[in-house]
C-alpha cells in the first residue's frame, strides 16, 4: 500500500499572527475586568424568584366624584373640514365676521377712558406707593438751579438701563424720580435715588408702571410751581394731570378728534396749557375753565373750549414755549421746518411765522432751554442749536418770515425716530 502524502503546512503571515495576538490580549483583558467587577460587587446578581402572589383581590380604591366639566371654549374651525368651499359666500361671510370682531376688539383697546383714574386701579407693573412720592410736593431744586454737576458726570457710566418693556418716546425728570413713556399708553416711574446694582448683580431697578392713556403718550410736562403734578399728552386726544398727592389722574383737556403730540406751559402761568396735535394745530387752554363738583371730582359733562391755530397741514412732532419770552413758541413739523411764532400777533386765518429754518428731512422736535436757545432733532440725524436771542425780529416786516440758520450742528448715527427722541 502506497504511503499517504501529507499536505504541506502553510506558515501564517506576520499580519495574521499579530491579529490573533491582539484577539487573545483583548479576551484576557475582558476576563480580568469581569473578575474584578464581580469581586467588587458591581455586577448585578441573579434576581431572586418572585413570591407567589396572593389569590385575594385587593379592594378597588374609591373613585372621587368627577366634577362636571365647564363649557368648552369655542375653537377655530377648519372651513376645509366643514366642507366649505374657499370662494363660497359662506366662507366670505365668515371671514368678514372674523375681521369685524377683531376690528371691534382693537377699537375697544384704543378707545379713550373718560373720567378720573386712580393710580392703584391702572397699575401695570409694580405697586403704587403714594407715600413715597410725598416729598416731591415739598422738596425740589430752585428755579434754574443745576442739579447734575461735574461730579455726577464722572460717576455716570455708559451702561444702559432698560426701563420700559416697550419703545420709549420720551423722558422727564423729577427731583428723585424719572417718569418715562412708551408706545402703548404706559407711564413708567423709576426711582433714580436707588443704588445701582453691582457688576455681578443682575437685579432690575424698582419701577412703577401705570396706564393713564389707551394710546401712546407723546409728551410730558411738570410745572416748576407744582412739582407734584405731571401733565401727559396722548394720541387718545386727551391731556391728563397726574396728581401725586391725591394719587389720581384727572382729565385736564380733551380734543375733539385729533391725537395730541405735545404739551407745554409757561413758567409764569401754572393754569394755561399749550398743546399741539397730529393735524398741525397748536392750541391754548385755561384749566380754570374745567368745571368741578363740590367733592372736588371732575364733571364729565364739561366741554373744552380752547384757542387754536392751524399752523401747518402736516403733523407737529413737538413744540416748546420760550421760558424767558412766553409769547414765542417753536414748532417742529413733518414739513421739514422749525418755525418760531409770536402768539400776540398770530392770525387764525393766515398764521405767519416770525422765523423758520428748513431741514433736509422732517424735524421731530424743537425745545427751548432756560436761556432762550432752541435745540432741534431731525430725521437727517443731526442736532441743531439756534441762538434765539440773536434773531433780528424788529427789522423784518410783519408780512415776512425771517430765514435763520443754526449756530451749531451735531451729526450722529443714532437714527432719529428710532433711537433718538427729544
Helix and strand layout, with pairings?
Elements: H1 14-40, H2 89-110, E1 117-118, E2 123-125, H3 135-138, H4 150-155, E3 168-171, E4 177-182, E5 187-191, E6 207-210, E7 217-222, E8 229-234, E9 238-243, E10 248-254, E11 260-264, E12 272-277, E13 281-286, E14 307-310, E15 316-321, E16 328-333, E17 337-342, E18 355-358, E19 363-368, E20 374-378, E21 382-386, E22 402-403, E23 408-411
Parallel strand pairs: 18-22
Antiparallel strand pairs: 1-10, 2-6, 3-4, 4-5, 5-6, 7-8, 8-9, 9-10, 11-12, 12-13, 13-14, 15-16, 16-17, 17-18, 19-20, 20-21, 21-23
InterPro entries: WD40/YVTN_repeat-like_dom_sf, WD40_repeat_CS, WD40_repeat_dom_sf, WD40_rpt, WD_repeat_DNA-damage-binding
WD repeats: 327-344
Biased composition (Basic residues): 55-65
Q: Could you name the CATH class of the domain at 107-141 and 161-196 and 203-266 and 275-280?
A: Mainly Beta
Question: Which topology of the domain at 107-141 and 161-196 and 203-266 and 275-280 does CATH recognise?
Answer: Methylamine Dehydrogenase, Chain H
Q: Could you say which overall geometry the principal axes of the C-alpha atoms support? A: elongated
Spatial ordering of strands, largest sheet: 1-10-9-8-7
For the sheet with most strands, the description reads: 5 strands, antiparallel
Task: Return Rg in Å.
Answer: 38 Å
Mean pLDDT: 75
SS-based class = alpha+beta
Number of β-strand runs: 23
Helix content: 10-25%
Please state the second-level CATH architecture of the domain at 107-141 and 161-196 and 203-266 and 275-280. Answer: 7 Propeller
Please tally the helical runs, counting DSSP H or I stretches of 4 or more residues.
4
Order of helix and strand elements from N to C terminus = HHEEHHEEEEEEEEEEEEEEEEEEEEE
Amino acid at each position: 500500500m502506497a504511503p499517504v502524502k501529507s499536505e504541506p503546512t502553510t506558515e501564517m503571515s506576520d499580519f495574521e499572527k499579530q491579529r490573533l495576538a491582539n484577539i487573545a490580549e483583548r479576551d484576557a483583558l475582558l476576563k480580568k475586568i469581569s473578575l474584578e467587577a464581580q469581586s467588587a460587587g458591581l455586577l448585578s446578581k441573579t434576581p431572586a424568584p418572585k413570591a407567589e402572589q396572593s389569590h385575594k383581590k385587593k379592594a378597588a380604591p374609591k373613585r372621587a366624584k368627577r366634577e362636571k366639566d365647564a363649557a368648552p371654549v369655542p375653537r377655530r374651525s377648519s372651513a376645509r373640514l366643514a366642507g366649505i368651499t374657499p370662494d363660497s359666500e359662506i366662507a366670505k361671510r365668515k371671514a368678514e365676521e372674523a375681521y369685524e370682531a377683531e376690528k371691534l376688539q382693537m377699537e375697544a383697546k384704543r378707545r379713550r377712558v373718560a373720567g378720573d383714574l386712580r393710580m392703584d386701579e391702572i397699575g401695570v407693573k409694580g405697586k403704587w406707593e403714594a407715600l413715597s412720592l410725598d416729598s416731591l410736593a415739598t422738596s425740589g431744586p430752585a428755579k434754574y438751579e443745576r442739579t447734575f454737576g461735574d461730579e455726577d458726570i464722572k460717576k455716570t457710566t455708559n451702561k444702559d438701563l432698560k426701563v420700559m418693556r416697550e419703545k420709549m418716546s420720551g423722558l422727564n425728570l423729577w427731583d428723585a424720580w424719572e417718569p418715562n413713556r412708551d408706545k402703548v399708553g404706559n407711564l413708567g416711574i423709576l426711582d433714580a435715588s436707588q443704588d445701582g446694582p453691582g457688576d455681578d448683580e443682575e437685579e432690575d431697578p424698582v419701577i412703577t408702571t401705570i396706564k393713564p392713556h389707551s394710546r401712546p403718550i407723546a409728551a410730558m410736562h411738570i410745572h416748576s410751581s407744582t412739582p407734584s403734578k405731571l401733565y401727559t399728552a396722548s394720541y387718545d386726544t386727551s391731556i391728563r394731570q397726574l396728581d401725586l398727592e391725591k394719587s389720581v389722574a384727572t382729565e385736564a383737556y380733551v380734543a375733539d378728534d385729533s391725537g395730541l403730540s405735545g404739551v407745554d406751559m409757561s413758567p409764569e402761568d401754572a393754569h394755561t396749557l399749550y398743546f399741539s396735535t397730529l393735524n398741525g394745530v397748536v392750541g391754548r387752554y385755561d384749566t380754570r375753565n374745567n368745571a368741578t363738583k363740590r367733592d372736588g371730582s371732575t364733571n364729565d359733562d364739561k366741554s373744552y373750549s380752547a384757542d387754536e391755530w392751524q399752523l401747518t397741514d402736516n403733523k407737529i412732532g413737538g413744540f416748546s414755549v420760550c421760558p424767558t419770552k412766553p409769547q414765542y413758541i417753536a414748532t417742529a413739523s413733518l414739513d421739514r421746518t422749525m418755525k418760531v411764532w409770536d402768539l400776540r400777533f398770530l392770525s387764525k386765518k393766515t398764521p405767519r411765522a416770525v422765523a423758520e429754518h428748513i431741514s433736509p428731512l422732517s424735524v421731530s422736535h424743537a425745545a427751548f432751554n432756560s436761556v432762550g436757545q432752541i435745540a432741534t432733532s431731525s430725521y437727517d440725524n443731526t442736532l441743531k442749536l439756534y441762538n434765539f436771542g440773536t434773531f433780528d425780529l424788529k427789522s423784518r416786516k410783519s408780512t415776512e418770515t425771517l430765514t435763520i440758520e443754526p449756530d451749531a450742528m451735531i451729526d450722529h448715527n443714532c437714527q432719529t425716530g428710532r433711537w433718538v427722541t427729544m
